[in-house]
Amino acid sequence: MFKKTIHKLLFFVLLVTTISACDIDPVIKEELPADNIRLVIPPGWPNPQYDFSTNPLTKDGFILGRKLFYDTKLSRDNTVSCGTCHQQFAAFANLDHATSHGIDGLFGTRNAPPLYNLLWHTNFMWDGGINHIEVQPLAPITNPVEMDESMNNVINKLQSDASYRLMFKNAFGDEMVNTQRVFLALTQFQGMLVSSNSKYDKYTRGQVALTVSETNGFNLFQQNCSSCHPAPLFTNLDYVNNGLDSTFADLGRATITQDPNDYGKFKVPSLRNVNVSRPYMHDGRFETLEQVLEHYNSGIKNSSTLSPLLSTGIPLTSQEKQDIISFLKTLTDNTFITDRRFADPF
Ligand code: HEC
Ligand code: HEC
User: Fold this and answer.
1) Which of 17, 143, 205, 253 has an alpha carbon within 20 to 30 A of 150's alpha carbon?
2) How far away, in angstroms, is 334 Cα from ligand 2 center?
3) What angle do CA 68, 70, 76 make, to 5 degrees?
């Protein structure tokens, strides 16, 4: 009896907190002091390709961008947001599905890549088909298997929402909602996704030591992997065929350039946070890092566009594979994947 009352009480308390949580304006500004929304270029990194000079980064712009990123209103039937496919705990990749899972339960053909350090990229998507960060969101919003919505409808939905009109006013000076402003705000949010505080980064700053296995893995990585996945971004941002197939269901870079020399070449992914952003490769074919290492060790498929660096594979003992995986795990940035500034505000 007593227990039951306690349960009822608990239920009531929970109910009240849930209701009041919904009451609060979803944008909790207090947790975001303005000086928290500042782009910090990690020491020793190259200059970013996009620097906000034409899109001044502000707290209100960032908060608006975050809300848009997590808002299902950007999809035709209001069920899918950018955050549906790009999940923070997975470094904004998608843990649930090998290829992306969008509106009406439809599947795309490619794996959702993680999102961080995008300001250093000049081209986006696995095939580099989009060449400006500001226009990138148009692709998922209008893609029939992702969000399947028109920008006109998105603008109308946002314009008819008083809280959005206020947020656009705070961010851009007046209440007008338009496509350009939506893209600028999304760029402020996505551009702020900088990941540079992994154990590896702390090691390079002299703050922690690597274990024996991590050190061995680091050395092996430098010898075998860093030509395509070099620090600090852990990608050279080039398009490469790393030997997954000998004939190509997805032509990769060649879908954009139409050049047979680009068959099966894909944008080299960064390996930061790789331990939390499985599955791997453009089509999500590998579930584990062990499978990826085994691919480089014994699975390289020959073709005319295969990278010459991989023509004989990368022979590794099982100890060496384990050591490389230990090193790759030092690239996980827990500060980034738990940073409350980047979390869903809804
Ligand atoms: C249905 C799942 C899905 C949704 C929803 C989605 N994305 Fe993606 N995203 C993907 C996939 C898959 C790719 C890779 C596409 C390709 O290579 O053709 C991608 C690629 C990207 C990239 C390029 C990253 C890189 O490294 O090149 C960015 C940036 C991005 N998405 C941002 C967004 C934004 C912003 C939204 C919301 C407006 C969004 N995504 C909605 C699945 C999704
Ligand atoms: C010649 C260039 C090259 C070399 C060398 C190389 N990679 Fe890659 N790597 C790539 C490319 C390209 C992809 C993406 C291929 C795709 O999806 O079609 C990739 C993908 C990966 C992925 C999947 C990441 C993700 O998010 O999907 C991992 C992990 C990886 N490589 C680790 C390594 C390791 C470890 C080594 C060294 C043992 C290595 N790579 C050597 C080019 C290279």
Assistant:
1) 253
2) 22
3) 75
Task: Give the residue from 129, 118, 110, 73 showing the smallest Cα distance to 92.
Answer: 118
- pLDDT surpassing 60 at residue 12: no
User: Which of the listed residues 62, 85, 235, 282 should we mutate to test ligand 1's pocket, taking the one with most ligand atoms within 8 A of CB?
Assistant: 85
pLDDT score for 176: 97
Contacts with 60 (C-beta within 8 Å, 6 or more apart), sequence order: 167, 170, 171
Cβ atoms of 221 and 331 within 8 Å: the answer is no
Where exactly are the structural domains of the chain? 52-194, 199-334
- Considering the domain 199-334, what is its CATH architecture? Orthogonal Bundle (1.10)
CATH superfamily of the domain spanning 52-194: Cytochrome c-like domain (1.10.760.10)
pLDDT tens, position by position, 298-323: 999 999 999 999 999 999 999 999 99
| Structure confidence at residue 104 (pLDDT) | 87
Our answer on whether the CB atom of 74 is closer than 6 Å to any ligand 2 atom is no
